[in-house]
Design goal:
By secondary structure, this protein is an all-alpha fold. Helices cover about 70% and strands about 0% of the residues. The chain has 12 helices and 2 strands, in the order H-H-H-H-E-E-H-H-H-H-H-H-H-H. Strands 1-2 form a two-stranded antiparallel ribbon. A hairpin with an 8-residue loop joins strand 1 and strand 2. Helix 1 packs across helix 2, helix 3 runs antiparallel to helix 8 and helix 5 crosses helix 10. The chain is globular, with a radius of gyration of 20 Å. It starts with a helix and ends with a helix.
Length: about 325
């Protein structure tokens, strides 16, 4: 376990050192957040805060992961197996998010970013490539761990649609959660740490090393993203974190536990789906617009109930820690 922890500490220092220059660079080029007008009034003061801050943790993780894979190619087995697929997943989704962030700031329809259809198309292509490699290449991942059952359960080709759904779903789920200072970053760090522990228990040192490298870099991001935030991760960070977390879960075989470990992400997504469904149903059958929540994603609902932004974040963080603990416990139960 010493290698993952050392790499996590290293990634923190690299990211925290490069954080202030990145913020200055983003400010210089006026790459600032556009806050939606229908959001809580207290969020209007965030307008102009540098976004695309996902670069703060993505770049150090890619540098460290790339260096370790290069060492593997040169014959130095520092962490064991290759993590190039994780490298590709993080880099591809960060690039997609960066393009979306940039178009939202500099594109023709400022504030809108990439079209939903185009973004979804790229997400599907990336997910299909990743899951295809997992399924058809070594170590032929076509199984799943089920709590209470000591043997892995083979599911054959169903792994492909399930894997694609999970990667796309969690990529969007983290994106929806990224709405309060340090919320998405703190919940993501808990989730990666939880799966890092699961990977360590399975003897997958290389996967645990990657997870804690991400955790360390996220801690550095949270240093600057703590309320009041100096920088936002944007789609550059949120799309990359969600997709990569899903890939880590698939590589451990414990992806049924992802809704447990990432319970906050699931709750945020379900709240949006329920809000849309309740509005459509009420307009169609009741003749008026009735919504289940004051505003979604659900963290805004609690803000409008009177909770401060810090209270929402801290209470969601507590739920995230408990969810991560439960997920690791269930993985142990699976054996």
């Amino acid at each position: 376990m010493e290698s993952p922890l050392v790499l996590g500490t290293l990634s923190f220092f690299i990211a925290v050192i490069w954080g202030q220059p990145l913020i200055a660079l983003l400010r210089h080029h006026r790459i600032g957040k556009q806050v939606r007008m229908e959001g809580p009034d207290s969020h209007q003061e965030k307008t102009g805060t540098p976004t695309m801050g996902g670069l703060l943790f993505v770049v150090p993780v890619l540098l460290i992961t790339g260096a370790l894979n290069l060492a593997n190619l040169l014959g130095f087995t520092l962490i064991g197996k290759s993590t190039l697929l994780l490298f590709f997943c993080l880099a591809a989704h960060a690039t997609l998010g960066a393009v979306d962030d940039w178009l939202g700031l500099r594109g023709r329809g400022k504030g809108k970013g990439m079209s939903a259809r185009m973004k979804s198309g790229f997400q599907f292509v990336f997910a299909a490539i990743i899951v295809g490699i997992l399924y058809f290449g070594p170590p032929d991942l076509y199984y799943v761990g089920v709590p209470g059952i000591t043997q892995w359960v083979p599911i054959g080709w169903l792994f492909i649609p399930a894997g694609i759904f999970i990667i796309i779903g969690f990529s969007n789920a983290v994106n929806l959660t990224d709405g309060l200072d340090s919320l998405a970053g703190s919940i993501s760090s808990i989730s990666f740490a939880s799966y890092g522990l699961i990977a360590h228990m399975q003897g997958q040192t290389y996967l645990a090393a990657f997870c804690f490298t991400v955790v360390g870099a996220l801690f550095a991001f949270l240093w600057f993203n703590a309320h009041p935030a100096q920088i936002f991760m944007g789609d550059t960070g949120s799309l990359a974190l969600g997709a990569t977390l899903a890939l880590v879960a698939l590589m451990t075989g414990q992806w049924l536990l992802l809704p447990v470990v990432g319970f906050v992400f699931v709750a945020e997504t379900v709240s949006v789906l329920l809000q849309v469904a309740s509005a459509k149903f009420s307009r169609r059958y009741l003749g008026r617009d009735i919504r289940m929540f004051k505003m979604t994603p659900i963290h805004h609902h609690f803000e409008l109930m009177g909770w401060s932004e810090t209270q929402v974040k801290e209470r969601f963080w507590i739920v995230g820690v408990l969810s991560g603990m439960l997920g690791v416990a269930l993985a142990l139960w699976n054996g």
